[in-house]
Amino acid sequence: MKNRFITFEGIDGSGKSTQIQMLYEYLSEKNEKVLLIREPGTTSIGEKIREILTDKKNNAMSYMTEALLFMSSRAQLVHEIIIPALKENTIVICDRFIDSSVVYQGIGRGLGKEFIENLNQAVTCNIMPDITFFLDIKPEDVWLRKIGLEESDRLEAESLDFHSKIYNAYKMLASKNKNRIVTIDANNTPEVMHQNIIDAINTRF
Ligand code: TYD
């Protein structure tokens, strides 16, 4: 399996980090060259942008500013990391990518799906994930799991209504992009989810 670009999507707390780590270990054990990255962030410029985006003090941030900061982080990541890694035949696994902006800023914040898709196209130089895993769990189920466990950042602190909007947007996106987006039932145990992810990868590639 060479120069594949794999992304993970889902609402906050859907279990992406665990699945990404499990997939990373699985592929590394198979002696694949794998790179793990996250959005927003990874590059030093991107991590600075992440701090601005998640800082609770920045409650004056306009939705447009927010969208463009995510796009700036993405532009830098594609340029500095993703394109060179894919050229070197490395498998790239990215925690969130273009779909996050479509659902959170385009639909959640109401900036418009097409507007965000156009920005995405511009900043990614049309680089698309080969496969995207959408970890499907309802926000109310995540909230039940997480209540009182950890402090939330600026984006996580949004209302349940907002997260429900995001969840529905992901469902819509997944149903419209069945060739690329694979839905994984995130109510299952991490082991079952991992197996479903491996099966999808082995079927595709
Ligand atoms: P992340 O660190 O992946 O949060 P979590 O692990 O809780 O899912 O993402 C940070 C936040 O940024 C998350 O609330 C989703 C949001 N986000 C956007 O709103 N738009 C984007 O384009 C991206 C990449 C993330």
**Order of strands in the sheet with most strands:** 2-3-1-4-5
Largest β-sheet summary: 5 strands, parallel
- The amount of helix comes to 55-70%
As for the number of domains, it is 1
Mean pLDDT across the residues is 94
At the first level of CATH, the class is: Alpha Beta
CA(first)-CA(last) distance: 7 Å
| CATH superfamily descriptor | P-loop containing nucleotide triphosphate hydrolases
CATH architecture: 3-Layer(aba) Sandwich
Cofactors, ions and other ligands in the entry? thymidine-5'-diphosphate
Strand content: 5-15%
Low-confidence stretches: none
User: Total number of β-strand segments?
Assistant: 5
Query: What count of helical segments does DSSP give?
Result: 8
Q: How does the overall form come out from the CA principal axes? A: globular
Radius of gyration: 16 Å
Order of helices and strands: EHEHHEHHEHHEH
CATH topology: Rossmann fold
